[in-house]
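Dear Dr. L.,

I hope this message finds you well. Following up on our conversation about the binding site, I have prepared a predicted three-dimensional model of the protein together with zinc ion. For your records, I am including the exact sequence and ligand specification that went into the calculation, followed by the structure tokens. Please feel free to forward this to your student if that is useful.
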Amino acid sequence: MTAAERVPVLMYHRVGEVHASVESRYCVTPGRFAAQMGALATRGYRAVGIDAFVGWLAGGPQLTAGDFVLTFDDGFRGVREHALPVLERLGWPVAIFLVTDLLGGVDAWNASGRHGGGTYPLLTPDEVVEMQARGCSFHSHTRTHASLPMLADGALADQLTGSRAAVEKLLGLRADLLAYPYGHVDDRVEAAARAAGYRAAFSVQPGFNRCDLNPFRIRRLDVFGTDSPGALLRKMRLGSNDGSLRNLLGYYWRQAVGTGR
Ligand SMILES: [Zn+2]
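The resulting structure of the complex is given below.
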């Protein structure tokens, strides 16, 4: 077994039916999700728990090459209905970041129509408890999905501590991992997350994670509903959100002419 040097973290949002073409970026259909997971398993990739990954970042036990982390932002109900059965068959853990004031509601932050799609139901508290018993882990995505750098200090602290407390109260476990809504983070937000007792936080900056990374700027690869299984494999290979064949060929070209990194 080769020790992992760089670990990808995949970021998904909704799994379900796509009702408008603008939704296809952030929504993966159930069939495509199953095909993506199947392709990863066939190539020898294996999802590991988020705690093992964060422990590795902090100098803990090593991970194995091919290990990756699977995350879902927002806590849509479709994850339970469509993704969880696929992941249970593979025995793969999943981490879900919840918007705690909106449990049992809808993704109200998308209701502005900015994405042109509708709103979709979010997991209820009972479903979260049931999914925890099935091996899912739950973490904070703030109280209301606010863009954190926009907030004054008091509201920022409230979003961070309030959502942590809500997850801990619901599940009776320490909840000290955060995903920044929209990936928005700056130095003040990072300091507030540390002050609120978080151990690590996930951004949307693409790339691989190496064990010397700032644990409050964990990188994630954004999986689009338009990604074929082959495109996802290329993203994993390149550590890039660009899973096009052209990008992979460019990578090999740069390697061949000696300018690759
Ligand atoms: Zn989100």
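In brief: The chain is about 35% helix and 15% strand.

With kind regards,
A. P.
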